[in-house]
């Protein structure tokens, strides 16, 4: 049975950008499970699967509906234990929680500033009307105030990747010898930036850039199928 994935898009349905949805796309491909991607814009999210969640991703697997990217990954791991593991055991799942906390508190915090205006520009008018006030309320600042920090966040972004850069001296993936869900967590953040923003965040020759390029090529180039922002 094909799993249905509801994922966030802007005005162009062919350019899904949510970091959390990208985690699930990669997790489903990692498991080798057939899935159908259903595009959802911001103002459509409340109607997804009867309003089960205020956010996407949401999947439907037969009669099961699961929301939240980490909960979805845990569900896939438990439901399809015969497929390649997303965590490599309980310890790997617990460590992925740390990676998620680091990614969201450090990388997402910066990217919310860097890509804010570019995300808004890629939305349909009705979603733009929702997006600005919701993000200003979440961040506690106006778009104009947030924009004042953009250049500083761009210039400092590389330093935020130092833990990953140092780790990659010892192993090719966060998961060790092969990618795991922890890799997809960080990939989701950088793919979000790649799809929506033209800001120069990764440098050629950097270990993180090389790792990210390997991520984009995983699963028959699933990440690369969506072109980088111009």
Automatic annotation (TrEMBL):
The signal peptide here is none
PROSITE patterns reported for this sequence: GST_NTER
Q: Name one Pfam family in it.
A: GST_C_7
In what residue span(s) does the GST N-terminal domain sit?
A: 8-84
Concerning PANTHER family, the annotation shows:
MALEYLACETOACETATE ISOMERASE (PTHR42673:SF4)
Indicate what this protein is called per its UniProt record. Answer: Glutathione S-transferase family protein
């Amino acid at each position: 049975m094909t799993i249905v994935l509801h994922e966030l898009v802007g005005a162009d349905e062919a350019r899904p950008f949510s970091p959390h949805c990208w985690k699930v796309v990669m997790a489903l491909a990692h498991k080798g499970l057939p899935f159908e991607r259903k595009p959802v814009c911001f103002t459509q999210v409340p109607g997804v699967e009867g309003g089960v969640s205020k956010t996407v991703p949401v999947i439907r697997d037969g009669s099961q509906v699961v929301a939240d990217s980490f909960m979805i990954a845990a569900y896939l791991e438990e439901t399809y234990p015969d497929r390649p593991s997303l965590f490599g055991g309980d310890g790997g799942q617990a460590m992925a929680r740390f990676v998620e906390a680091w990614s969201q508190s450090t990388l997402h915090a910066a990217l919310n500033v860097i890509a804010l205006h570019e995300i808004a520009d890629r939305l349909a008018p009705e979603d733009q009307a929702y997006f600005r006030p919701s993000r200003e309320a979440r961040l506690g600042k106006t778009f104009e105030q947030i924009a004042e920090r953009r250049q500083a966040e761009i210039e400092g972004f590389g330093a935020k990747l130092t833990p990953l850069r140092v780790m990659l001296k010892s192993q090719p993936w966060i998961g060790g010898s092969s990618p795991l869900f922890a890799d997809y967590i960080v990939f989701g953040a950088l793919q979000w930036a790649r799809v929506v923003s033209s800001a120069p965040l990764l440098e050629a020759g950097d270990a993180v850039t090389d790792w990210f390029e390997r991520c984009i090529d995983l699963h028959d180039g699933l990440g690369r199928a969506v072109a980088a922002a111009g």
